[in-house]
Amino acid sequence: MGCEAEGSALCAACEEGLQGRRGVAPGTPVGMPSHVPLPLVAHEWCVAYAGIGRPAIHALKYGGERRLAEPLGRAMARRWSDAGCSGDLLVPVPVHASRRRERGYDQAELLAVVAGRQLGLPVARALERRRATARQAELDRSARARNLRDAFGLRGGTGAAVRDRWVILVDDVMTTGATLSEAAAPLLRAGAIAVSALTLARER
Ligand SMILES: [Zn+2]
After folding, report:
1. C-alpha to C-alpha distance for 83 and 31, rounded to whole angstroms
2. When you count CB atoms within 10 A of the terminal residue's CB, does the N or C end of the chain come out lower?
């Protein structure tokens, strides 16, 4: 992936390319059009959804390249700790069960497991996607919001895991932020004290 060197899923030089925001202050840089999507209190990411971010995510999601979760999850954990962000628990933003079956895994969950291990934080599969939504990438902004309404719910028996916890949502990419906002809602209803988000990439 990346430079297509033989060997590991991502060579050391390409992995270094995932640290493009090293040294950048936490939060949204001046000049970026949008802010942290409500009701999130923080969002951090490693790379723009350009350069290596896009092919890396495509290979992980659609190319069956699950080995990439390791370097990508590590990069995310490093950004989270470099930015000095807090949280108690990582919760992946899930794909629908039908897509998980078809793909054999859920990329956000793989990223959360690696990032959680690096950060020393637990991971809970607390959310489920209630409807098989259309791929967000194929929709315009207003259609994305409609597509997502009530798309997420709490998985049975996970309420206690998120109550009084600061949850960190984990996903591969933030596009408009609508997915993260929708995913945060059932966590807050279940008593999470706050929800932040960590993604590998940010689209704009
Ligand atoms: Zn490379």
Report:
1. 19
2. C
| CA-wise closest residue to 72 among 109, 111, 107 | 111
| Cis preceding-peptide flag for 39 (omega within 30 of 0) | yes
- Identify the structural domains of the chain with CATH numbers, from first to last: 38-202 (3.40.50)
Residues bordering ligand 1, an ion, CB closer than 5 Å: 2-3, 5, 11, 14
Nearest Cα to 184, choosing from 133, 126, 140? 126
Query: What are the pLDDT digits (tens) for 152-179?
Result: 999 988 989 999 999 999 999 998 899 9
Q: How far is the centre of ligand 1, averaged over its atoms, from the C-alpha of 60 (Å)?
A: 15
pLDDT tens, residue by residue, 83-113: 999 999 999 999 999 999 999 999 999 999 9
> Cα(2) to centroid of ligand 1, in Å?
5
> Helices 141-148 and 178-189 sit at what angle, rounded to 10 degrees?
30
